[in-house]
Design goal:
Blueprint (H helix, E strand, L loop, with lengths): L12 H15 L3 E5 L7 H6 L4 E3 L4 H13 L3 E7 H7 L1 H9 L6 E5 L16 H6 L5 E4 L5 H9 L6 E4 L29
Parallel strand pairs: 1-2, 1-3, 3-4, 4-6, 5-6
Length: 194
């Protein structure tokens, strides 16, 4: 069993995402990053690989459509944005453009649950139910912000669409000692027996 630890420590899952995408971008020229105006933690990738970075502005539906087009050209697009808008506002585009075609689009959403300071429109409680119901979609819910690194690396060789759900993403508690857990698709991490 993985060792859990220090519930007083905090890190930003969004920072882990930005650093990991930048690292993967150096190794994999097929990685593209798309965002609907949520790019503050993607600055390194944007600066290092501007030809593979697309910010569509506040237009989640367009972002998913652009990502689908990039995937149809043989690339692996990662879309990073806010959960309620990627799961609900862009629901039809995720279903039709990405899932029906079984494209390798990675959708990373922040703000899961009742975590947002933006009011009820920014809360996401339905996102897992919505996206899990879509054909070919794999849903991953992060329990520890450090897990995102392993999941993103794993996703580069994963077939089909993947939805990666985070909590707030700004200030998250690491639960496991780094290096003590191994993430595998289709499995889970037991926090504690009993």
């Amino acid at each position: 069993m993985a060792g859990s630890f220090n519930f007083g420590e905090w890190i930003s899952a969004r920072s882990v995402i930005g650093a990991t995408l930048n690292e993967i971008g150096a190794e994999n020229e097929k990685l593209f990053v798309c965002t609907p105006d949520v790019a503050m933690n993607l600055i390194e990738f944007k600066e290092n690989y501007p030809e593979r970075f697309i910010d569509v502005g506040i237009a989640e539906q367009n972002c998913i459509g652009v990502a689908a087009g990039i995937a149809l050209e043989g690339n692996i697009p990662v879309v990073m944005g806010m959960l309620p808008f990627l799961s609900m506002r862009a629901c039809e585009q995720v279903r039709t453009d990405v899932c029906y075609q079984n494209l390798p689009v990675r959708i990373i959403g922040t703000g899961g649950g009742l975590t947002s300071g933006g009011g009820s429109t920014h809360n996401a409680m339905e996102d897992i139910a919505i996206l899990k119901s879509m054909v070919n979609m794999t849903v991953v819910s992060i329990g520890d912000p450090n897990m995102i690194r392993d999941i993103l690396k794993l996703s580069m060789d994963y077939e089909g669409p993947m939805y990666i759900r985070l909590a707030q993403g700004k200030k998250d508690r690491p639960l496991y000692v780094p290096g003590t857990i191994e993430f595998k698709s289709g499995g889970c991490v037991t926090a504690r027996d009993g």
